[in-house]
Amino acid sequence: MSKRIVAAFLITCTMLSFAACNAKSQTDDSTSTALTETSEKPSSFDVTFPEETAAPSEASSEEKETNEPADTTSEPVTTAATTAKSLGKVKVSDAYKKAYGKNQWGYKATVKIPKITIDGVSTKAINKEILDYCKKNSGNECSCGYSYYIGKTYVSILIVLQEEHDMSPATMYNVYNISRSSGKKLSKKSMLKTLGISAKKFKSRVKKAVTKYYKKDIGYSSKAPSYIKRDYKKAVSSKYLNKAIPYVNSKGKVSYMIKLLPIPAGAGAYDHCGTC
């Protein structure tokens, strides 16, 4: 009996040990499964951010570039109106004035040379240029005067030199278009751009004005003498029309000046100006 009891006891212990091990194994498996699920299952943050960051982040960059405000350090676009408001005031006065007595032909010459002053801008160079030109070409035998027009962005000065004698006197002109922003002389191209007129259109308008002048004042027509026709043909040629300088007269009218325009009367050449 004792042997049977011992055997039963051993069997019972073995079975209990196996059950305990089996229970422990089940517990370990359950824990492992739980850990695996916790580490592999992505959170809501992991789902939305890692998968959507790459493409949308490029889109965000493009959106930033598209919506980025303009560079405030770049030069602003300036219109004539805004420029005019910021420009300094302009004053045109006499830099030099003198009246001569009668010369050998019995004529009196007067000399008036302009001086341009623009607030905040140096006009020393252009004033010297005008002064030197006028002094060189005037005196007791030639009067000097001027007229001018102050535009929004420029000043137009017309110098008039009139010979005071009986030997085929002539009138000579010179034009100075001056920038109100720089105080410097404007080129023909710059002045035409300021006036909003193309070089081709200006040339056409000058040709029309010169033709009108020859017909009205010189007597050009189909019946005119050959020398008038010859000089008219020269006057409306590209050689002379290309010499025309634009300016604005004292009444605010777009005008032109041509140096040494052919003319049947007088010395054979002189300066001419008129509106166009």
Number of strands: 8
Low-confidence stretches: 5-14, 16-84
- Could you say which structural class the secondary elements and strand pairing correspond to? alpha+beta
Helix share bin: 40-55%
Tell me the Rg in angstroms. 48 Å
The appropriate CATH architecture of the largest domain is: 2-Layer Sandwich
Biggest β-sheet strands, sense, barrel? 3 strands, antiparallel
Spatial strand sequence of the major β-sheet: 3-4-5
CATH superfamily of the largest domain: Fervidobacterium nodosum Rt17-B1 like
Quote the CATH topology of the largest domain.
Answer: Heat Shock Protein 90
The structural domain count equals 3
Strand content: 25-35%
Mean pLDDT: 76
Distance N to C terminus? 147 Å
Can you summarize this structure?
The chain is of the alpha+beta class and 276 residues long. The protein has helices at 2-40, 44-67, 80-86, 124-137, 188-195, 199-218, 226-235, 238-241; strands at residues 90-102, 108-118, 142-150, 154-163, 171-179, 245-248, 254-262, 269-275. The longest helix is centred in the N-terminal third of the chain and has 39 residues, at 2-40.
Structure, explained:
A hairpin with a 3-residue loop joins strand 3 and strand 4. This protein starts with a helix and ends with a strand. About 29% of the residues have low confidence. The chain has 276 residues and is an alpha+beta fold. Helix content is 46%, strand content 26%. The protein has three domains: 65 residues; 108 residues, Fervidobacterium nodosum Rt17-B1 like (Heat Shock Protein 90), CATH 3.30.565.40; 87 residues. The longest helix has 39 residues. A three-stranded antiparallel beta sheet has the order 3-4-5, with helices on one face. Strands 6-7-8 form a three-stranded antiparallel beta sheet. The protein has a two-stranded antiparallel sheet with strand order 1-2.
